[in-house]
Amino acid sequence: MTDASSRAAELLKEHRDSIDRLDAVLVYTLAERFKHTQAVGRLKAEHALPPSDPLRESQQIERLQRMALDADLDPEFAKNFLNFIIGEVIQHHKKHQS
Ligand SMILES: C=C(O[C@@H]1C=C(C(=O)O)C=C[C@H]1O)C(=O)O
């Protein structure tokens, strides 16, 4: 192995270690978020509130897109990602109500 290729292998490993740590943060963060949304779902079911709240969703999407721009993340990706998660949450809320 040349010096250049062993340095490349070292850098690849460092990046992958960081990716693994960040993936763990994502999974634990998502799990914590779902715990809160499940609690919201139970509250909504107990108080006959609708599963989705479009005003709150649009405020969140706006906020997330501002943060994404600040963080140098594609705001369109951030929007799609949050919409995907919210879609899952609403399905959970509908189950609470059935
Ligand atoms: C969690 C809630 O329920 C739904 C899910 C949301 C979310 O995952 O962020 C936001 C709004 C609602 O459509 C809520 O009303 O706060």
From TrEMBL:
List, alphabetically, the SUPFAM superfamilies matched: Chorismate mutase II (SSF48600)
State the UniProt keywords alphabetically.
Answer: Isomerase
Note the InterPro entries from the entry. Chorismate_II_sf, Chorismate_mutase-related, CM_bact, CM_dom_sf, CM_II_prokaryot
**One of the GO biological process terms:** chorismate metabolic process
According to the UniProt record, what class of enzyme is this? isomerase
User: What residues does the Chorismate mutase domain cover?
Assistant: 6-97
- From the Swiss-Prot or TrEMBL record, what is one GO molecular function term? chorismate mutase activity
What does the record give as EC number? 5.4.99.5
| Cross-referenced NCBIfam families | CM_mono_cladeE, PRK09239.1
Protein's name according to its UniProt entry: chorismate mutase
Organism listed in the record: Roseovarius faecimaris
